[in-house]
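Worked example (supplementary).
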Amino acid sequence: MDFSIIFENLPLLFKGLNLTIQLLIISLILGFVMAIPLAVAAASKTTWLRLPSKIFIYIFRGTPLLIQIFIIYYGLSQFEWLRESFLWVFFKEAYWCAILAFSLNTAAYTAEIFRGAIVQTPKGEMEAAVACGMSRFDQYRHVILPSALRRAIPMYGNEVIFMLHATVLAGVITLVDLFGAAKIINSRHYAPFESFISAGVFYLALTFTIVFAFKLIESHFLKHLKR
Amino acid sequence: MTEIFGGYLPLILKGMVITVEVALLSLVFSLILGILAASARLYGGPISKTIAGVYTTVIRGIPDLVLMMLIFFGGQVLVNKVGDKFGWGYIDIDPFIAGVLTIGFIFGAYMGETFRGAIMAVSKGEIEAGHAYGMTSFQVFTHITFPGMVRHAIPGFFNNWLVLVKTTALVSVIGLEDMVFSAKIAGDTLRQPFTFYMLVGFLFLLITAVSDLAMRYFERRYRFGQS
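After joint prediction of all chains, the assembly is encoded as:
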């Protein structure tokens, strides 16, 4: 094995790393913002609120992300009206398609995690909120969501790692993320071990960073649950 | 009937058979690895414990597609080198085998963690009771630990299976003619990528739904002895 190839191509790998992190952070933020209303709706007792949200979650969790990204990036070009509309500026770019697919996907998984946490909110906390005379909105704003989101942190940490691993699919639709960079190095030098092992090391480092970050976040937000 | 989907339905269904084959074979492989990893981590000496620990951590820290590329392209380089030495000539690595090996290898790590958790969840008292009745260690395993473990492992096992099925979509990236690959061929030829990717997405949902039913059945079957 000749790792000098990797040193030569380090700038390319770092450019890929940059894009991977960028895609991850943007999709996580967008997905998180969508996940909260979705989770509240999915935990609701009102059928017309719960059903659409549950169907969204079921479809996005039940199909591979690769298919979702292909439908958005390759599939939508089938519709002429879309190609002629102003939206095409957005949908013709692999970058935006990747972000759209990633955010919708992580929104569905995150919503399911948050829904589980909301449903398991201790009865006493809810009764206390009602006893304080809070409106439904205030109950969610001040009691249910702060409590549920805290309890969801460990599960959400796993989702963030899954999302990091899912960003490799950006490299499948022509983007040069960390995986895309490794693919380029492999095809240039025919060096599969060097290129994919180095990419793997980068991903491993990112994974450990996320695990560590979530340990810190947990120790901050879950102090009250420690015994 | 053949006119539906422009005559491409048989191709898609043929791809679906390959998808299911890849999924089932990798499941078998991952079960073997998972049992090995779990027993190594629970009962093994320090060396096998370390190996199993590194295996589960590293695999779960690297994206599946990176590992698949490493095994597919890297395996090809290795086979070429060995082939050169022994004068076998050029041997192609089969994407089917590479896919099954990679997916099985990855999910072996997840299965290992599931089994480890499930074995640890079997109550100590039950095992001690078995020994107190004069059962041999083997009898304790087949009559107490194993049935107890299966019950605890079912939810995690099916969760892994559902993720595994979705991961099989990646074999299309290394050129195996699975469901996703067939959808690409059909969609590109008829210029209807959206239609065919949607169809494949629906078929994945179908597999998920059937698996759900199977899980309910097994959960009921292994609930004996529980109130």
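Two points are worth noting when inspecting this output. The first helix of chain B runs from residue 9 to 43. The two ends of chain B are 50 Å apart (CA to CA).
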